[in-house]
Amino acid sequence: MKNNKVFISGDEAVAQGVRLSRPHVVAAYPITPQTITVERLSEMVEAGEMDAEYMHVESEHSAISATMGASAVGARTFTASSSQGLLYMAEGLHYCSGGRWPVVMMNANRSVALPWSIYGDQRDSLSLLDSGWIQVYVEDAQEALDMIIQAYKIAEHKDVLTPMMVNLDGFILTHTYELVEIPDQEMVDHFLPAFETPNKMSFENPKNLGFSSRPDDNTEFKYQQNEAMFNAIDVIHKTDKDFADMFGRKYHGMVEEYMCEDADVVLVALGSVCGTVRVVIDKMRAEGKKVGLLKIRYMRPFPVEEVKDLAKRVKAIGVIDKDISFGYEGTVYTNVNSAISQIDKYVFKSNFVGGLGGRDITKAEIEDMYNKLYAGLENKSEETVEFFSLNVESND
Amino acid sequence: MTKVLDIPKVNAKNMTEKEFFYGHKACAGCGGSIAVRLALKVLGERTYSALPAGCMSAVGFIYPQMAFNSNAIITTFPGSASMAAGIAAGAKALGQEDFKTVVFAGDGGTADIGFQALSGMIDRNDDVLYICYDNEAYMNTGIQKSGLTPYGTKTTTTPAGQNIPGTVTHKKNLFEIIAAHDIQYAATASIGYPQDFLNKVNKAKHVKGASFIHVYASCPTGWGTPTETSVEIAKDAVDCGLIFLAEYEDGEYKLNRNPKEFRSVEDYLKKQGRFKHMSDADIQCVIENRDKKWERMRKNWL
Amino acid sequence: MSRPKHTEYQIPQHINDYPTGPQYDAGFLPEKNAGWRTFKPVVNHDECIYCLRCYLLCPDGTIMKDNGKIKIDMDYCKGCGVCAHECPKDAIAMEKE
Question: How does pLDDT run across B108-143, given as a tens digit for each residue?
């Protein structure tokens, strides 16, 4: 294979992935830290490197509405957003998945106001977990590029026809430069066939789309949507394999395990923090501690089987949440916990909430989490939900 | 832009026999459905219709009854203009030619919640004809006040009582707001003057880029008028000067109809349940507002 | 076909009988609207001058041109009376069903 490595940011890697996927229509509204992606795409359109209609929409709501419109005539589409912009799209996200339009979106994970913060956490996309989109979280720029290409293949699959959101941690991934391999266009064309869908308007076969359904039928449409999301699981695995066969990079589908084979204590996390966790694991493993990582790649569909399988093998599971559902716990934890509850075994669990509004999650903090899991296991403690990086004393 | 004279006129005699809005569940005598039906007959088979939440989408797409006999889609409420723009862009990118994308949105869907997207669509000059059928309130949800509800109107959110005489604001000046975008073509119309409406749709059909028509469309249910008078009342509105027929083209306003005398505003109002409560002073306020508007139009647009 | 016609709808028996997402054939009409009607339009063809004002203004598009005569699709006429009211020759009468 040709070696075509370039030093680019995560946002730029996304733009490269989009270019290679040849969308017909790109509609996006700028928001930090997504902006570099849409700037690069605009440049590519200007330079003739991309044959797409670039729509300068006046809001995120219009970005998602325009991409849905284009998808509804059978065009491949891309949009990108973050934080407040993603929330402004919220109506459209539900609309798009219900309409079964396989729009692909990049979301630069960013904190949600108030207070204002342009920096990263995952409260934006996790608060929209129920909007019916396939959600994948990536760990580095290469995975971001590769997942944009895979996203089209997964979302547009006839058994799926569901939109897909590729999530990158704001700044940590979007703005960090890495060496990224740019796949060959011909190979991508071969990997990603043209978009075909029965769910479109055409002059050969005129249709009415986006209709209303009475209570007699509404449940069936929602059942069908849920079924499509479950269908995505097989398609995700197959796509991962096909991608690895063609491009040599494998991401292991729904989750990726690191040092879990013989692990006693495992942390579960999404996105870029996984890189830091791996470093801590290497250190603790050298000290003889059997620690591991479960990197959840897909939050929807949720890797229930993978989590159950892990829980059967380990003694303690901690979940890092760059997110909090106020009045309860982190959303990733809720999901993991629900899967674990399906097996008949005691596993000590803990939820570590932090990294909010761009606060770094340090190696020391991660090591501390593993140690707390060991301690909890030993003392048979009650499970806990803990804000792990408060800078001040709390009232607890 | 194609010269008007070059466009063959569409009228009742020569228009397509094909119906594109049929079997819908609109109230009997619905003025909005007259506007949609006629516009689609002018635009023809190769049309994509986009409709936000509102009467025409609510009555046209109740699965499995599909009342649009050509391509049509319900859009997000605030995003009809953007979704239509996306349709136009997608179809163009796929190499389709010789088609039109049209929005049919109500007064609330246009002047209120859909306005931002509409402004963006015109700014980008997307190849979309946006038709606002104005029945002067949120009718689909049960007659609530919108930005185009006229002064004095009784709606379910502007009840007329001892303290407040119904709606206390005047209609937003939608036509001039749209024209202020320097849009290629904008017009006002009324289903009471159907040939004028057909002509304007026909003209807009030949615009490459954004165009806009604001058509006055009666609502017997919301207005408290007999179903058979739907066209007559929409004509009365023009004849008494509360609704005007105009165009904005190549940067110039044109008043299509400039009657020497207006018919009685009071007669027009008193025919409708929604205005029955209005006091003489309130009617006078409506007339004064009308006169001011006409003075300005006659000074600037003739 | 100038107008969509009433079509039988097969009630789905299996989830796969549903369309993929909310999309269906344009102009598919399993229901008629005739039941809404209290008064029906009756045309006096001797008086009718075939000006087509009724054809133009019918909110439901139910008036057809039929070899120089107008004809009404009674499956979809709701009986609003616009045609009768707008007729310059009073050639359409609204009669109780």
Answer: 999 999 999 999 999 999 999 999 999 999 999 999
Of C93, C87, C29, nearest to C58 by C-alpha is C87
Task: Kindly list the residues from chain B whose CB atom is less than 8 angstroms away from the CB atom of residue A208.
Answer: 60-61, 66-68, 71-73
Q: Could you say which architecture CATH assigns to the domain A255-387?
A: 3-Layer(aba) Sandwich (3.40)
Q: What's the mean pLDDT when you consider all of chain A? A: 97
Task: Select the residue of A52, A65, A207 nearest B117 (Cβ to Cβ).
Answer: A65
Place of tokens 């989750």: A255
Q: Which tens digit of pLDDT belongs to each residue from B258-280?
A: 999 999 999 999 999 999 999 99
Query: Look-up: residue for tokens 């075994």?
Result: A345
Q: Is A211 in contact with B61 (Cβ distance < 8 A)?
A: yes
**CATH of span A5-247:** 3.40.50.970
Q: What is d(CA A349, CA A370) in angstroms, rounded to the nearest whole number?
A: 11
Q: For the domain covering B4-301, report its CATH number.
A: 3.40.50.970
The alpha-carbon gap from B65 to the nearest alpha carbon of chain A, in Å, equals 9
For C32, residues 6+ apart whose C-beta sits below 8 A from its C-beta are B23, C6, C75, C76
What are the two backbone dihedrals, phi and then psi, of residue C22, each rounded to the nearest 5 degrees?
Answer: -75, 80
Q: Hey, is A316 helix, strand or coil? A: strand
Determine contact: C48 vs chain B, CB below 8 A. Answer: no
CATH code linked to domain C33-96: 3.30.70.20
B51, amino acid identity: L
Q: By CA distance, what is B113's nearest residue in A?
A: A61
Task: Say what the alpha-carbon torsion angle B60, B65, B69, B74 is, to the nearest 10 degrees.
Answer: 40
With an 8 Å Cβ cutoff, is B22 touching chain C?
Answer: yes
